[in-house]
């Protein structure tokens, strides 16, 4: 990818931002004070922050979803009742409770209640099933689980393989349970009914939460093939909510954030909800994103701020133009992955003043934010970071003759490393060995330590950066990180596949990388039933992880050390002109099988005939 010179930030551009900078300084100071809780005895965290927001705006809207509108006082008291009930059931500080509920108020109230107790919410990905779901649940050894009725079939299928007592298997009906708790099926305890008569005062435990106490486990794709549980501490919650809500967005009680992103990910849960709480603002959610209903919802909730990922923006741009496109109250948006090519079009068509593009990782210690509202940038970071040279084959940072790494120059792309110190501690994963793998030592001087993000960025001047790409054995599609090893392992469960190599490939005019897999049949091409193979993959993987393209190879090429030549496969992609020796198949939108990619099909994909 070539660097666009017009994205470079110049002195003239910075001078024009001086009024913006002057206005931002007071909230920058206030935000940094709120974010940098250093006293280990000072109360902080999600529960405490929500209680403070309730004092500021008790009758203001806190959660909005469909016809449900709950004030800060109502949500706080509801969470308190659940918290007191859980404490009575023996759940205590440090206990892990798995939460398996789709985007709805009950999910956030449950997480808030657990945060007040001091328990850790393990936020299970609601797209997961079978072996992956079993792994995610057992990885963190939960003492209990809260399951939404909508996900009961997925949980029931694995219940015998997750060691949780029936008395601590709590059920939440799929309805407005604030008004109507519903009835739990046999073998489950109705959490809302059971806690209905509990005390509604703030529990004493919410004032016993400190900077280093874990708040969530947020799952991230790992190169080992199965999800890793990243630790998200209450101190980091304070940094995140203050950084984005106070400093970047200047949220206030009359603001409303509209978010359709999955709340088991940090962007939706920590950035969007955290920003709303920091401003005692409203938080409007929807079960699943709908491009056709998006702006109608925005108007319905009188949202002033929207949460996004790049794919979401593309879907909105692809909708037919309407005279109502700019008839809304949205002035700012926060998220990640908006492509430079779509930036200006989105901003102009939908009349959004400030695109607060950010960069962060749930398992990392650094964040960038576009506070100054430049175009095509993730902004800057207050943490120490460097971009270094890397090996294009392995993705690993390279060292010079002196043993240290080389920083790349302005305009060059490099691997992002973030310094680990008291100002930017690394919470890491539940598995210390996995944490150790992402920590680099003696990078620029003896004794220093840096977090290896695995991401490529470009320095465009004045501390600002652009996101370029993701390295390693994951790729991003539909706003989700996909583990290539996990896809490979699942494909290898098919009796007619003996080798599989998964990777991400670019499709013209889409965000991220779509899944593709090179496979070698156990016997021959004739033994593969592509409709059955697609059904097999869809049964075992989340929709975003199912490969959109298959390349059938008689024999896989490997390096001298028996590693698959994934870089070559990525570069060749699904173009039949580049892979003439191997047939390539595509799962076209709306179909139920893979079809061979001919020159005509390739031309149709390039022309945008199919909406990915």
Describe the fold and architecture.
The chain is α/β, with parallel strands linked by helices and 612 residues long. The chain has three domains: 36-363, ANL, N-terminal domain (Rossmann fold), CATH 3.40.50; 385-469, Luciferase, domain 3 (Roll); 474-606, ANL, C-terminal domain (GMP Synthetase, Chain A, domain 3). The chain has 18 helices and 27 strands. The strands form five sheets. The protein has an eight-stranded mixed beta sheet with strand order 2-1-11-10-12-13-14-15, sandwiched between helices. A seven-stranded mixed beta sheet has the order 7-6-5-3-4-8-9, sandwiched between helices. Helix 4 (72-88) packs across helix 5 (105-117). The longest helix has 18 residues, at 18-35. The protein is globular and about 70 Å long. The two termini are 22 Å apart. The model is unreliable at 1-5 (pLDDT under 50).
């Amino acid at each position: 990818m070539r660097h666009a010179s017009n994205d470079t930030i110049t002195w003239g551009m910075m001078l024009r931002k001086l009024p913006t900078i002057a206005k931002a300084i007071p909230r920058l100071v206030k935000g940094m004070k709120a974010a940098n809780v250093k006293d280990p005895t000072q109360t902080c965290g999600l529960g405490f922050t929500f209680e403070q927001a309730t004092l500021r705006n008790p009758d203001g809207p806190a959660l909005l979803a469909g016809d449900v509108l709950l004030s800060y006082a109502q949500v706080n008291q509801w969470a308190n009742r659940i918290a007191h009930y859980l404490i009575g059931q023996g759940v205590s500080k440090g206990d892990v409770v798995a939460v398996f509920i789709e985007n709805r108020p009950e999910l956030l109230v449950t997480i808030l209640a657990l945060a007040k107790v001091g328990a850790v919410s393990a936020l299970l990905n609601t797209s997961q099933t079978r072996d992956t779901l079993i792994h995610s649940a057992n990885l963190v050894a939960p003492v209990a689980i809260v399951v939404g009725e909508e996900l009961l079939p997925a949980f029931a299928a694995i219940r015998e393989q997750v060691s949780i007592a029936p008395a601590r298997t709590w059920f939440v009906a799929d309805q407005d349970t604030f008004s109507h708790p519903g009835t739990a099926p046999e073998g489950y305890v109705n959490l809302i009914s059971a806690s209905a008569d509990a005390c509604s005062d703030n529990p004493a435990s919410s004032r016993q939460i400190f900077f280093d106490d874990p708040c969530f486990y947020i799952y991230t794709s790992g190169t080992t093939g199965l999800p890793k549980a990243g630790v998200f501490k209450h101190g980091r919650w304070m940094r995140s909510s203050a950084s984005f809500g106070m400093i970047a967005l200047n949220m206030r009680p009359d603001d409303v954030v509209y978010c359709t992103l999955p709340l088991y990910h940090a962007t939706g849960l920590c950035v969007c909800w955290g920003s709303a709480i920091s401003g005692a603002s409203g938080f409007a959610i929807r079960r699943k994103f709908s491009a056709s209903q998006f702006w109608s919802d925005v108007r319905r909730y009188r949202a002033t701020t929207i949460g996004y990922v790049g794919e979401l923006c593309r879907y909105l741009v692809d909708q037919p133009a309407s005279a109502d496109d700019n008839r809304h109250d949205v002035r700012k948006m926060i998220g990640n992955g908006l492509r430079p090519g779509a930036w200006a079009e989105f901003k102009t068509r939908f009349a959004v003043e400030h695109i607060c593009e950010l960069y962060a990782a749930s398992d990392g210690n650094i964040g960038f934010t576009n506070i100054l509202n430049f175009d095509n940038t993730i902004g800057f970071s207050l943490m120490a970071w460097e971009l270094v040279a890397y090996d294009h084959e392995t993705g690993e940072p390279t060292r010079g003759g002196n043993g240290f790494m080389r920083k790349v120059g302005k305009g060059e792309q490099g691997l992002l490393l973030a310094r680990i110190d008291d100002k930017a501690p690394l919470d890491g994963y539940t598995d210390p060995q996995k944490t150790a793998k992402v920590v680099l030592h003696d990078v620029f001087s003896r004794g220093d330590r840096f977090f290896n993000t695995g991401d490529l960025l470009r320095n465009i001047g004045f501390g600002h950066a652009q996101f370029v790409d993701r390295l390693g054995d994951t790729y991003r599609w539909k706003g989700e990180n996909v583990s290539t090893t996990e896809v490979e392992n699942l494909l290898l469960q098919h009796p007619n596949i003996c080798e599989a190599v998964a990777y991400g490939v670019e499709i013209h005019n889409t965000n991220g990388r779509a899944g593709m897999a090179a496979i070698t049949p156990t016997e021959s091409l004739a033994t593969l039933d592509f409709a059955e193979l697609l059904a097999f993959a869809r049964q075992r993987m989340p929709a975003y992880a199912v490969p959109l393209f298959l390349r059938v190879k008689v024999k896989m090429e490997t390096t001298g050390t028996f590693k698959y030549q994934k870089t070559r496969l990525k570069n060749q992609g699904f173009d039949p002109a580049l892979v003439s020796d191997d047939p390539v198949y595509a799962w076209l939108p709306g179909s139920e099988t893979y079809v061979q990619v001919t020159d005509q099909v390739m031309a149709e994909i390039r022309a945008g005939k199919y909406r990915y």
